[in-house]
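Q: Got a minute? One more chain.
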Amino acid sequence: MSFDLTFLWGLILAFAVFAYVVLDGFDLGIGILFPLFPAGEGRNRAMNSIAPVWDGNETWLILGGGGLLAAFPLAYAVLMPAIYAPVIAMLLGLVFRGVAFEFRWRTKRGAAWWDRGFFAGSTLAAFCQGVILGAILQGVKVEGRAYAGGWWDWLSPFSLLTGASVVAGYALLGSAWLVMKTEGELQSRVRRYTGWCAAATLAAIVAVSLATPFLKADYYQRWFAWPGVLWTAQIPVLVAITAILLFWMLRRKAEVWPFLLSLALFAFSFIGLGVSFYPYIVPESITLAEAAAPESSQIFMLIGAAILLPVVLAYTAHAYWIFRGKTGDEGYH
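A: Always. Here it is, folded:
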């Protein structure tokens, strides 16, 4: 039963992280692309498209971080010292992004500066999230039950690559979201951006996918050992099919499909990360079972999660349903 509970909490944590990536990813992507939108109405419409949902999307970040601490305390204790710097930078970026979001509507003379702040905070947060992913994926030094590395171990060419990759991916989500939510000249503009961001994201996926198996011997075995390769090979095939469909839908001027297919690209990439990680939560050092909280604690938290997760999902779905359709001139003022 302990193993089952641990695996279930691993799935819950993975779901929370994925939900945060796809939901907060598109509004961070809009911030990344913000300087490319026409000042005035174009930027206002882009921001109004996410105004009803952007702060609720960050609920999943709290659930992911809190879930890691509560369900896998050993992993939290080991990983946090290894990634303190990018985590702090990410949080500062998110805070500055939120402040800029609110304050740009309160002034006309300083609106351009808050627009720059919205771009800077969004880009910094996205980049740091990618760096955090790369730092964990490349592995951290563990001795006994504690982090044994240095302050700058998180910084490497691979973590910078994953940082840039997340920025490109979030920009794709943001532009595809605006294709779905806008119309007219702004929609035509962001449709072009979606094609560019899709190409950059696919290049990033290829680069990270080629580099990851050579970070550690275990990664290489999980991806290329026979007969497992028969299953893992399906992931790049699905990514390729999704990419072809994405460009095809953009060419046909579809509105909803580009966003859904962009989400699919993230889903397949996330599954690929799972292939590399499992059964470890700290690569090659600590497994899910070794990092898990006591069984009684997991049961107690599961009762709370069984109550709260449906509530969070329900209010999130309700918010998106209420604000479905195209974004008009009226909005967050």
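A: The mean pLDDT is 88.
Q: Perfect, thanks.
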